[in-house]
Amino acid sequence: MLNDIYNKRIIELAGNIPRLGRLPDPHASATAHSKLCGSTVKVDLKMDGPVVTDFAHDVKACALGQASSSIMASHVVGSTASELRELRETVRKMLKENGSPPQGKWADIALLEPVRDYKARHASTMLTFDAVVDAIGQIEARSRQTAQA
């Protein structure tokens, strides 16, 4: 039942999203959009080497997209590129392959585990993870180009 995924904690996370807005001078920006539900998440990222140093986002999404964005914003600063790529893959597997949710500072993502039974909600749940990994890729590509020049 949908009540399983829209529980009190998900609604709390969706209603209290940290780091809303845009960064004035991000190293990269990325947008992820779900055609199915119309949800969109835009992220701005700054990094020092492989470590995220600043983050902001504009979240126009359903409660699930808002909740996953809230979790991301709470823990992304200080995380590494490889950690965030691994996180996206872990969440994808949790939703699509009955994988285990992440542990440690990302343990709140377990609240999204019931979404696996609602394929139509997977895309909105994944938006923030996809956008962050896209932004990291942009920063790394620019860094490689600079190093080769």
From TrEMBL:
It comes from Bradyrhizobium archetypum. CDD domains: IscU_like. Pfam families: NifU_N (PF01592). GO terms for molecular function: iron ion binding; iron-sulfur cluster binding. GO terms for biological process: iron-sulfur cluster assembly. This is Iron-sulfur cluster assembly scaffold protein. Residues 6-123 form the NIF system FeS cluster assembly NifU N-terminal domain. InterPro entries: NIF_FeS_clus_asmbl_NifU_N (IPR002871).
